[in-house]
Amino acid sequence: MRLSVEELEIRRPIWIALSELYLDTKPDWARVAGICARSPFAIPGLRRILFDEVHPVVHLNLWSTAGVWDGFDQDWLIMSILARKRAPVFRLPWPEERRYPWRELKPQLVSARQRSAQAP
Length: 120
Known about the structure:
Blueprint: H1 5-19, H2 29-37, H3 43-58, H4 74-83, H5 93-98, H6 102-118
Helix pairs in contact: 1-2, 1-3, 2-6, 3-4
């Protein structure tokens, strides 16, 4: 994946926040949703970042008996995401809407965006 310095700076906090959904602890959904809601990405774009960029790198942690629980090394996370060269060739959009962690994050993300739009 090739990104400009500006694109990397925008994505970095999103990647780190979304990776927390794959730790062996209960996620702080509101905090993660807040970070994502403040990003310039539309909701479908955030879903793509989650499933195309973060999920492939960290999803196995949820299956590990001794998974990472205190946070992924941020340098490792960023380098692993950037090192991925392939994007999915074909996808059905509906399963992702029902998949963990999107099914929990999306409603909180929508709510956080609505609150920020209503703030003075």
